[in-house]
Amino acid sequence: MEIAWDIMKWPLLACLVLPGLLVYFGLHIVRRGVIFVDLALAQVATLGTAWCLMRGHDVHDLHTHLWSVGFTLVGAFIFAMTRAREHHRVPQEALIGIVYVVAAAAGLLLLSRTTEGNEELKKMLIGDVLTVTWDEIWKTFLLYTVIGVIHFVFRRKFFAVTFDPVRAQAEGISIRLWDFLFYALFGLVVVSFVQIGGVLLVFSYLIVPAVCANFLAVRFGVLLALGWITATLASVVGLAASYQFDLPTGAAIVCALGAMLVVVAVIARFRKPV
Question: Hey, what domains does the chain have and what are their CATH numbers?
Fold first, then answer.
């Protein structure tokens, strides 16, 4: 039991305290209908990392991290400027898909010029939450706290731009400015968690709890609570299964989230959202 705790304590702590902000962003993302924006931003950030690797920098250098953040901010600017109006012939999801594919292709071209490119690409995709350290957790949690405070202070504008953009525009709120701030902060969250859990786990924490919550509720407070409960239960089950059956940790949590979605979808068939 002591050995299990020594191995799993930091992954457990990371999967309990860090996904909460992803769940919050996931509710915004689902409502906006830009489901794959986190994959695109993660891929744009990876492009920044690939550029630094090709130039001879180490993946853990501050220089590399700053370049990744810089590339992410460029992606945030693109998504803020290309937000499609209602009934527009080109949906924003199409543009997000194009950014993802081009960034992925460019990243592969850059990584093909490095010796460790394939290994880094694999790590960015599947991550390795089992090796997370206390130092990574508290730094990421501090960043998430700052971002959470910003969203709380300006919650009226963020909610208006996401849930009622017509009214926001009528009130004189700059849609593009607040969209950029939303995507920039969201990009920082994605980049930081991708380094811990990989792209697949980030996408799952972002979307699955939000979808589960929307099956069962309507009010935002209830949606957020249900999303957090879903993420917590799936984290515990996935980590337990990973340790018990010697499975890849990130993949086990993703599958646990998928199983939670099936259960919630069945429950939703027999009850009305609250």
Answer: 2-268 (1.10.3470.10)
| Contact in structure between 215 and 265 (CB atoms under 8 Å) | yes
Would you place residue 125 in the very low, low, confident or very high pLDDT band (cuts 50, 70, 90)? Answer: low
Percent of the chain whose pLDDT exceeds 70: 91
**Which of 50-64, 242-256, 257-271 has the lowest average pLDDT?**
50-64
CB count within 10 Å of CB 266 equals 10
Helix intervals (H) in the chain:
2-17, 19-32, 37-54, 62-81, 92-111, 117-126, 134-153, 155-163, 165-170, 175-216, 220-245, 249-268
Cβ atoms of 107 and 121 closer than 8 Å:
yes
Q: How high is the pLDDT of residue 157?
A: 93
Burial 205-237 (b: 16+ CB within 10 A, else e): bbbbbbbbbbbbbeeeeebbebbbebbbbbbeb
Which one, of 14, 165, 203, lies nearest residue 80 by Cα?
A: 165
User: For residues 143 and 17, what is the distance between their CA atoms, to the nearest angstrom?
Assistant: 12
Highest averaged pLDDT of the listed ranges 109-123, 127-141, 172-186: 172-186
| Nearest-angstrom CA–CA distance, 17 and 67 | 27
Q: State the virtual CA torsion across 82, 83, 85, 91 in degrees, nearest 10.
A: 80
What's 58's DSSP letter?
A: -
